[in-house]
Automatic annotation (TrEMBL):
Catalysed reactions, semicolon-separated: a myo-inositol phosphate + H2O = myo-inositol + phosphate
GO molecular function terms listed in the Swiss-Prot or TrEMBL record: inositol monophosphate 1-phosphatase activity; metal ion binding
Enzyme nomenclature, EC number: 3.1.3.25
EC top class named in words: hydrolase
Reported cofactor(s): Mg(2+)
Binding site for Mg(2+): E69, D86, L88, D89, D214
Cited InterPro entries: IMPase (IPR033942), Inositol_monoP_metal-BS (IPR020583), Inositol_monophosphatase-like (IPR000760), Inositol_monophosphatase_CS (IPR020550), Inositol_monophosphatase_SuhB (IPR022337)
Family: Belongs to the inositol monophosphatase superfamily.
One Gene Ontology term from the biological process aspect of the record: inositol metabolic process
Annotated keywords: Hydrolase, Magnesium, Metal-binding
Protein name as it appears in the record: Inositol-1-monophosphatase
Length: 264
């Protein structure tokens, strides 16, 4: 499948950062047995990957702005274009030697998501999407799953940890969706969760307290794979609310309904 010039630029940056993370991941697995632990090393790995991405994208598209997990906002000369970068989504997995983590890069043009790349270097899985051009996993077209009933579905989510998110609300959401679905999965990387929905591996996904770089590329992938992605209110303010709900048309609607149940 021929890729556009912009996707090629993003893929090159993501895979170069991914190779760096893969090397560091091997070291983290060794550091797991040490008394100090791998926490500091993971922070360095994160920053190294972000620096690689920033360098590669800046060289290819000088002037574009950035919004990155580590550096935050970096204003460029071109106000129409902005990269949203998460150099290591799934840091806790990485820290514990679990091979479910990813590099996520999205491009906005005048506030609209137009391209996205997610790469899991541990599994060598590359997800790409371009507005109007479809979504692909290692160059094979992706489509969201076609299941119609929530009771038949496996749904992904994120669970807030210590010091993060509203635990009571998350437990209520879990109760409501558990009671209507075939199973719930918590992978630990929102970018990969959304990519899995686009690939039909999971039927739906919801999470709160996300940053824009966590979900930008994945939102575009779900939509280009024929699915729906909104905030938990059914609107388009995912970045403002920090929430996302995704699935095919029917499952997306069922998930929204389950998440909006009143507290009993």
């Amino acid at each position: 499948m021929p890729r556009s010039a912009i996707i090629n630029v993003m893929v090159q940056a993501a895979m170069k950062a991914g190779r760096s993370l893969a090397r560091d991941f091997g070291e983290v697995q060794n550091l797991q047995v040490s008394l100090k632990g791998p926490g500091d090393y993971v922070s360095q790995a994160d920053r190294r990957a972000e620096e690689i991405i920033h360098t590669e994208l800046s060289r290819a598209r000088p002037g574009y702005s950035f919004l990155m997990e580590e550096r935050g906002a970096v204003e460029g000369d071109d106000p129409q274009h902005r990269w949203l970068v998460d150099p290591l989504d799934g840091t806790t997995n990485f820290l514990h030697g679990i091979p479910i983590f990813s590099v996520s890069i999205a491009l906005e043009r005048q506030g609209t998501l137009v391209a996205g790349v997610i790469y899991n270097p541990a599994m060598d899985e590359l997800y790409t999407a371009e507005r109007g051009g479809g979504a692909f996993l290692n160059d094979r077209r992706m489509r969201v799953a076609a299941r119609r009933d929530l009771s038949d579905c496996v749904i992904g989510t994120g669970i807030p940890h210590l010091g993060r998110g509203h635990h009571g609300r998350a437990l209520l959401d879990l109760r409501n969706v558990m009671g209507e679905s075939a199973g719930i999965r918590r992978l630990g990387s929102a970018a990969l969760d959304l990519a899995y929905v686009a690939a039909g591996r999971m039927d739906g996904f919801w999470e709160e307290a996300l940053s824009s770089w966590d979900m930008a590329a994945g939102i575009l992938m779900v939509r280009e794979a024929g699915g729906f992605a909104t905030d938990r209110n059914g609107g388009q303010d995912m970045f403002g609310t920090g929430s996302v709900v995704a699935g095919n048309e029917l499952i997306h609607r069922s998930l929204l309904k389950a998440l909006q149940k009143p507290v009993s």
